[in-house]
């Protein structure tokens, strides 16, 4: 008697150690002279989008993806040229490796560290396909073929790259699910800045963008005066789409804490 096939997971696995160890800092926005460069910025942003897209297609047990350029273009909402450059960036930096010996049947992509890392992050892939959000999240492509939420991270904007880096870090540092833990990510602005190379004054606007994209919720932590005008804040972040909720015993009166935080003065 044949086994009943398991239903497809609503989330996808992603290696997390590289992000926990500061790997996101290599996805920069500045040229060799330290100046913000849109080409560098867009290259980093596209590479991270493609990395997430690849992980959502990877086989859970092996981290192997069999795919084609048209599929990746539709999945990530990017052109073929951008996909090609992004794959090269990811391969050159050790995040993937490729077997393109059978081009007609598509490429085999291996996500590095898939089996080596003890733990892993969860990408809420169904949320990226179907998650509730603003009207411009809607796509003419069938929702199961396009990660529509990725479109919110737009090119030529530093905030988009900063927000995506922080989002990936929040995925990587998330606590284990209930009942082993609360499934939240608890981290300070200082630590976010340290692990992503996002300027500390830019963390709050990036968090607000993720909130507005309906990718996260958060509860504000206590804060104390810092440098006379800034604040050292440790928040609890909830990743949307993973069926995690803040503690049921918390008062509904605290709902105002979900509102975006005001940007710190730079």
UniProtKB/TrEMBL annotation:
InterPro entries: WH_DNA-bd_sf. SUPFAM superfamilies: Winged helix' DNA-binding domain. This is Helix-turn-helix domain-containing protein. It comes from Pseudomonas viridiflava (Phytomonas viridiflava).
